[in-house]
Amino acid sequence: MNLQQRINAFVKLGDFIRQFSNDTIEKQNTVEFNDIFFDGFKHQLKLAEEHNGWFTPENISFALKGWSDSLTLEKLNTWLKPYNIETVNPKQVAIIMAGNIPLVGFHDFITVLITGHKVLVKQSSNDKHLLPYLAKYLEFVEPEFKGLITFTEDKVENFDAVIATGSNNTARYFEYYFKDKPSIIRNNRNSVAVLTGQETEEELENLSEDIFRYYGLGCRNVSKLFLPKGYNFDAFFNAMYSWHPIIEKAKYANNYDYNKAVYLMSEFDMLENGFLMIKEDQSYASPIATVFYEYYDSLDQLKEKLEVEEKQIQCIVAKGFSENEIAFGATQKPELWDYADSVDSVEFLLSI
């Protein structure tokens, strides 16, 4: 199977996913093997939602829309153009996936297969329904993928390289356990926003997407604000208001109530609006329904601080702050070439 065959197969997978990426699911007659897979995937969506209360229909469809937008011929060609992929010696690559947001390990899955390797997937129990079904569809549109994709719930064995994602604690275990294999090991990271007080209403409303999408569970979600001293929070809270229905979701509301009680009993200073709390704290990882903030003296000093602590940071949302910044509202819309932890996984897979 050559690279173009693999690209064409993922374009067809994108066409299939696109049917499920809007508020209304619509079956398209032009999609290959739809009679076999369409109704089954609708059922998998239902199972994913029932199994994990964070996986609401809105968040699943948002994730699917992101992937349908990425799996186009134009974007796949743009992504892969810088690399020489045709000369790959196929290896077995294990992927240990997180389960914090729907299909969070899908980029690693695509990357292993598109570079010509075989994939051995160990999924999180929190996100186990969608990917195996999409993998089966991929084998139908391109039969040469059969035998190249394996899922396991057991200990991963018989592999040549590994991409593993987990908490800081599990990452240390991964680093020890996989020390003799080529690896990419990812641990906890969080995203931050740098505000100056000059943001427009639209920019702050876009920031609300970075904060609340997926209930803030993703490493690309903004969990920390850096603010100039004397910052007025009125415009910020006004821009957050469109997300107030989020408090109607029981799992979110439970976390909000619990964390609010902890803060009040501990007599911490915090501001809140009924569905979001903001608290001054130097940490990057904030609890659900909470965003931390920290004041800065100068943008130059802040830039130095974030460079020193870059291994704790996934994304920096800002306007005119740094060359690697992400626009307000764009953290959960990464392109195929926006690599987690800024580690080029295609380059890694071509080197093993």
UniProtKB/TrEMBL annotation:
Keyword NADP part of the UniProt annotation: yes
**Could you list the residue ranges forming a coiled coil in this record?**
none
Task: Show the Pfam families listed in the entry.
Answer: LuxC
InterPro entries the record matches: Ald_DH/histidinol_DH (IPR016161), CoA_reduct_LuxC (IPR008670)
Q: Name one GO molecular function term.
A: acyl-CoA dehydrogenase activity
* Assigned keywords, A-Z: NADP
Asked if the record carries the keyword NADP, the reply is yes
Which is a GO BP term held by this UniProt record?
A: bioluminescence
Query: In its UniProt entry, what is this protein called?
Result: Acyl-CoA reductase
